[in-house]
Amino acid sequence: MKDRADYIVEQVKAHHELFRDGLPMIASENIISPLARQMLISDFADRYAEGLPGARYYQGNEFVDKVELEVIELAKKLFEVPYADVRPISGTVANLGVLFALTKPGDTITVPNVSDGAHISTAKFGAVGVRGLQGVPYPWDRENMNLDIDGTIKVIKEAKPKLALFGRSVFLFPSPIKEFRDALDEVGAITWYDSAHVLGLIAGGRFQDPVREGADLITGSTHKTLPGPQHGIVLAEPKAKAMTEEKMLRKLNYGMFPGVLSNHHLHAMASLGISLAECIEFGKEYAGAIIDNAKALGQALYERDFDVLCPHLGFTESHTIAMDVKRHGGGTPLVEALEVAGIITNKNLLPWDPTDAAMNPSGIRLGTQELTRVGMGTSEMAEVAELFKRICIDKEDPLKVKPDVVALKSGFQKVHYCFHPDSEAYKYYELL
Fold first, then answer.
1. Of 162, 48, 52, which is closest to residue 105 (Cα–Cα)?
2. For a designed S-S bond to 286, which of 40, 265, 324, 417 qualifies (C-beta 3.0 to 4.6 A apart)?
3. DSSP run (H or E) holding 285
4. DSSP assignment, residue 138?
5. Any alpha helices (H) in 43-192, and if so which ranges?
6. Which option is the CATH number for 35-274: 3.40.50.720, 3.40.50.300, 3.40.640.10, 3.40.250.10?
């Protein structure tokens, strides 16, 4: 069996080398700081803490309770909300907990379509369907890659949803929540904002402020633009007339545990606390740099004959760029060629793709948050765009492009926007 264990270690080393030497541009990923990573390998990883601080079902949680209470306070401070639950083990589990807490099978919920950039948890085959809910989609403005405001107001008034969910996985521009507030109040809907992709941008004050714009609650994953561990979070400041604040918060607590959680991955919760503290310190600067890089990348790709979405709006107001690459070969073959060169991206449905085209869509989705995290700026985005052109348009052999990818990345091997970034221990992706 030792040989099998050795095999696993070797594959992990190879994975580290791939990302150390490559350009990670998946919009739903990031890297945590070394201090946050240390929490993941602490003894917290071996323990259980069912329930709430001070009301556990197991003993031995004295220090876990202190950490959890501190992480809750950090989340409340960062997002300026009165309620935070840091127990969800992922963004999807956070979504499941909300659905378990605030809906029952057969209820109606309004959601974006997956083909319009929504996360799969909002689909019939995802969490919404698992809960047995009736999902009613919003109409979509393809030109501006956002919700159709008048059409969405009409849908809300006609569907009278229990929950109205906003938030996407292809999240180029803020959702117009304020414009829907009167209609949502009229039908008594609870406004829910899934911030998974843009949580760090919200924390940095650079995208939108969902709570102040009318959202009752926010869910999110904590490892995308917020560069923390793979975990989830729920934030709330209830305003909906559908139920009292006290009742909603009580339901949210119960929905998470015992609803969809047992133990809540204490090591990741502690790691999240470090990441939140770092975000309080560095989040505004980091969020600004992410968006600057995304805009610069969009412009550079556009200038190289890529069909980058929404040039009339500056391409994006987030970390994400979306491109239609159908005339260059389509999403699947291009992301595979890019990977050979060490550029890690993902194919993605675009609004005009049929829903059954998920494995062969027209689009590619890119994110700048991880390249920004290791110190790249707008000048490097032009270099990245040129690498894309060589592979996707010029059809150069990706193996011939790969040395230039490695050379570019070699100058960016430390994590930035975190505590003690100049320490020798803070090298990016140290090998085992």
1. 162
2. 417
3. helix 266-303
4. P
5. 62-79, 91-102, 127-130, 149-159, 177-187
6. 3.40.640.10
Please tell me the pTM assigned to this model: 0.93
The CB-side HSE value for 395 (13 A sphere, CA atoms) comes to 4
Residue 3 confidence (pLDDT) above 80: yes
Q: Which two tokens stand for residue 51?
A: 């329930």
Per-residue pLDDT at 129 exceeds 80: no
* 283-426 and 35-274 share a CATH fold: no
Structure tokens at 34: 């070394």
Would you list the domain boundaries of the chain?
35-274, 283-426
> Token match 């003690």: residue?
420
- Give the pLDDT of residue 432: 36
The DSSP line for 308-364 is ES-GGGTS-SSSEEEEE-GGGT-HHHHHHHHHHTTEE-EEE--TTS-GGGTTS-SEE
Strand ranges for 209-311 from DSSP E: 217-223, 227-236, 307-308
